[in-house]
Each structure stands twice: as C-alpha cells, then as structure tokens.
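# nightly structure sweep
# worker-07 picked up a monomer target from the shared queue
# config: single-sequence mode, recycle default, output format = structure tokens
# input follows
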Amino acid sequence: MNYSEVKQVAAKIKQEFPVLEYFHSLVRSGLLKYEGIHGKESFFGFLEQRTGSIAVDDKANVWYDHAAGKGGDIIAAVQEFENKTFFESVESLSGSVPVKKFVPRHKTEIAQKIVVEKVSEISHDALIQYIQGRGIDIQDIAPFAKEVHWQNKGKRYFAVGFPNKSGGWVLRSSIFKGNILGGGISIQVLGAAKSIKVFEGWFDFLSYLKLSGATDFKAIILNSTANLSMRLMLDSLKESQKIELYLDNDATGETYTNGFIKVAKLYQYCFQNGLATDWDLTALRGRKDKLAQLIVNLKIEESKVEEIWKMQVDIFDQRAVYSDYEDLNAFLVGIMAR
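# output follows
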C-alpha cells in the first residue's frame, strides 16, 4: 500500500475496529488482566499491577494508560503493545496479518521477571483464612488449588493458585488478583459429564460444588469474562450438552449471558436448517455486532431473524438462583452468615 492508501485504510480502521475488543485480546494472550467496568470505562492492567491503569472508552473508541501518560486509538494501541510501526499496525489490523500471530512487546520481559519458586499444598494461615472467608473449606479446595510462591522484580509473593489451560496460574488472595505465566480459561471434568457449566471464577465453581454436591459435569471456569469468546461458545455448543451459565449479576454478566444464548439460538437454527455451523470467525474480526454480520455472511433472510431469537435452546441463565447477590460465591457466603 502507498501512503495515500494507508491513510484511507487507517481512517476506516479507527472508525470500525473496536478498541475494547483489542484489549480483551491482550487479556487472552496473557499480557494484560481485566479489572472490570468503572463508570463508562473498562479498565485493564499489567499482571504485576494491583489495579488497572489502562482505561478504555468503548463509546469514544479510545484508550488511555494513566500510569504511562499515553493513549489514543486502535492503531496507537497496536504500536504500543505489539511494538509495531504505524504502517505495520495498519497492515495487521486490515486483515493481512492474523491477530493470533502477534507477539506483545512486554510479554518476554514479564516472563523473564516472574519466577515461580514453590508450589505446595495450601498451609499458610493467611491463605487459609482467605479461603474460609470465601465460604470454602480447605479440604474442598485442596483437589483443585495449590499454594504458589513467586518472585517478580526481586520481590516475593504468594497466593492461592489455580491452573489454567495455558499452563499458567490463576492467583487469588486477599490482596492479589491476577495471572502469571499465561492467562486463559480453566477446565475441570467431574465424573461422566452430563452437562457443561460455565463459571466466571474458581470460587463460583467451588461454591457450586459445595451447594450442590454434583459430580457429573464439565466446568468451564473463565477466570475473566473476556475469555468467553465466540470461539469458546461455538466449541461448547458443538458438544451437544445442556449448558448452564453462572456469571455475575452485573452489566458485564448480563451482556455475556445474553450473548451466549443468542449464539446458541443462531447455532441451533443453522444446524436445523442445514446451514454451516463451523462459522468463519476470522471474517468477523473488527465488527462490533458480530452476530448481525454472521447472519449476513450465512445469507439468512432478514424475515427469519425474529424467528431465530424466539427459539428455545438447551442453554440456561442460572443467575436467578443468586439474584440478590453479586455472584454465586457471595450467595454462598450470605447463606452461611444467616
């Protein structure tokens, strides 16, 4: 592309490519952690930070790193976090370079700084008190978690550690929440799984076990709602199991729960009508309304869309069980306090 063409493509990218989606992809890569929504902005931070300093305004489609004092649009984000030039960033975002191939600038540095020194059974009094404060008995958490000690920039830390699929650790304590050595989801299969249950965090999963005593399901523990990608939804639906969703009672939980159910309805419609169910998700990159674009790509008539959203599917929002609480773990703690 010549300079004039690059400028035209860049202008289109800045208008159409959602910055928020890009930062969630950095979370999935293990570079950043998602801290949640405060006011009108979503916050992200590096793993060694206690709180997120990178604010993303989805409506304005811009980001700002309060700690570094810099920010901008989606192209500026790719330049900053992938160490690319302006031209390389535009080329990448225009679709000629798949997102999955990027190597974040800071990732190697972080990997070199963090060293896991010890992994053992949980025995530290502070961690035991933290676990009990979450309504979980030490013998119930023992099959799933370890006490992890690590070093970062010469300082030593410890926390309750849960494994994730990337080979890293999901770390939780009264003063720390984050991942090391890679982020992503965790999977637990109990017995002969008869259903799939999706939990936002490990303590929601452990709370469900304590409340139900169930031993016959597959648990998908997101560790962050940002990990609930359309690919994960699609892969779960392909297993043809009943799916139960146990997400938080907040705006983010509402969005992801409703989104999953709509994906399930579209998937079922395609399956029943002989349409493709192995969707080309790369073609949706950069689209804010992925389902609307997917319907166009699948060449589904507009008159059928309302019919799709009225379909009944074998996927269930379980938040009504703990409707007066932030999440399933808070529900457990509330019950125990009565």
